[in-house]
Specification:
Length: 470
């Protein structure tokens, strides 16, 4: 039960509110208690001042102390107060009890050492006496040299009864407000969490087969709406990833099926007859070896793409010279270019130190040159350039092909893309699988660079690689 967010929210709400209500109730109780005691003290001091004024007014009559004290008390009428007058030695001269259980009670410290007016409080003497009181004691001087001690008491039972009533009211009010707050908090929590419940139910119905569904967004401006929108964006990315994976598997299966089918066919045809000429076996093995090399290249490219899909691909970082890498790679590609009667121009490169994965960068340059050789007609020209800039190096590969149509250009870096004017790349005579450019772009990006199609026209295309210096 307490695992529910709704219950925890309600308990937190009720708990915080209870602390606030208790603190507020204590403050009210203390304020009312202080106000009532101040009112009682005000009445006690008023009576003490009246007694002092009566002594001063009647002191010139010449009466003795006891007669004077009795006459002063007869002139006062305080039914809710008890008044007692003592002489300077502490002997009782006169007393006027109040109505009910109100009687004079002296302070625990006595009155013999009294030096100034002060108040005091006394609790009940026993559980049934109801004689708790508040008192004030003060000294009154009557010319020429008479001195009296006046004690005024007032019962605190009415004050305690009012405080008890207030306490009961606060108890009931706190419990009632907490009950209402608990019910209201439960309702509000349930109402607020309904979108979460709806999102949870919708998410439980989702699987890899229906990632096109989305969570309901009730209010896109609040936190839950923002959460649902963010989750929907995540679902969109997952759907794209699943779609790409399915497309990748379908394309990979198609590309692998073609050379495997050629190998099986060549093997089956060769083995149908027991006695064949040596040249026929050699021809069959040549076909099988060619398709096996194609399979090996496709597998290696797929392995590289698997590394590209990893969050942290492992790189073998070393220091080398980029100009030497370009020269060596262009020299190897010149062999393929010569077979196709192509001219590969390799101008002198400036000395270019670089730090990165030499093997991957070599393959990137090879893929670009290989792509240029594939799409350049016989007797065409290919050129590779290296430019040093302030913050980066620029590697350009120009070919003399017939160009890339504008509608195809946005897709040339997609895996297994078939867009060579409608002809499947995998069906080309060189056995390409449409993975060269995607791999080259990944290698550039993993080195914090980028690969772009700079331009493409009927006279040829230019690819450019930017690699950061340092």
């Amino acid at each position: 039960m307490f695992d529910s967010v709704r219950m925890r929210m309600t308990l937190w709400y009720v708990g915080v509110l209870s602390v606030i209500l208790i603190a507020f109730s204590i403050a009210i109780y203390l304020f009312v208690q202080r106000s009532l005691l101040e009112r009682v003290d005000s009445g006690l001091f008023s009576t003490l001042e009246s007694v002092s004024a009566s002594f001063e007014h009647a002191g010139a009559t010449g009466e003795n102390g006891q007669q004077l004290a009795k006459r002063v008390l007869r002139e006062l009428h305080r039914p809710n107060q008890a008044i007692a007058i003592f002489d300077a030695r502490g002997q009782l001269l006169a007393e006027q009890p109040g109505e009910g259980p109100v009687h004079v009670r002296l302070p625990e410290s006595g009155i013999s050492s009294l030096s100034s007016t002060r108040t005091y409080s006394l609790a009940e003497q026993n559980a049934d006496s109801d004689d708790s009181c508040r008192g004030v004691v003060g000294r009154v001087s009557v010319p020429p040299d008479a001195s009296y001690v006046v004690v005024v008491n007032q019962s605190l039972e009415p004050v305690y009864e009012q405080l008890d009533s207030l306490e009961n009211i606060l108890y009931v009010a706190i419990l009632l407000m907490l009950a209402l707050a608990g019910g209201g908090g439960w309702f509000l929590a349930r109402k607020s969490l309904q979108p979460v419940v709806a999102m949870s139910e919708q998410a439980q119905r989702m699987s890899a087969g229906n990632l096109d569904q989305r969570l309901p967004v009730v209010n896109p401006r609040d936190e839950l709406g923002h959460l649902a929108a963010t989750f929907n964006e995540l679902l969109g990315r997952l759907a794209d990833s699943f779609s790409q994976q399915r497309q990748f598997m379908a394309d990979a299966s198609h590309e692998l099926r073609t050379p495997l089918s050629v190998i099986r066919t060549a093997s089956a045809v060769t083995l149908q007859q027991e006695n064949r000429e040596k040249d026929e076996y050699r021809e069959a093995l040549t076909i099988i070896e060619h398709q096996a090399r194609r399979l090996s290249r496709i597998v290696e490219d797929m392995f590289l793409l698997a590394r590209a899909d990893a969050d942290h691909p492992s790189l073998q970082i070393t220091d080398f010279y980029l100009d030497e890498l370009l020269t060596e790679t262009a020299g190897a590609a010149a062999v393929l270019a010569t077979k196709k009667c192509l001219q590969l121009e390799v101008p002198p490169f400036p000395e270019t130190p670089f730090r990165g994965d030499e093997g991957l960068l070599r393959q990137m340059v090879w893929n670009l040159l290989d792509n240029a050789i594939k799409h350049t007609p016989r007797h065409g020209k290919i050129r590779i350039e290296l430019e040093r800039r302030d913050a980066e190096y620029a590697i350009r590969v120009h070919d003399a092909g017939r160009g890339i149509p504008p509608e195809v250009q946005p897709h040339i870096f997609e895996r297994f893309y078939r867009g060579d004017n409608g002809v499947s790349v995998a069906e080309a005579s060189d056995g390409g699988a449409g993975l060269g450019l995607p791999i080259a772009r990944w290698i550039a990006e993993v080195h914090h660079g980028r690969l772009e199609l700079q331009c493409s026209a009927a006279t040829g295309s230019t690819f450019i690689v930017f690699l950061p210096r340092g």
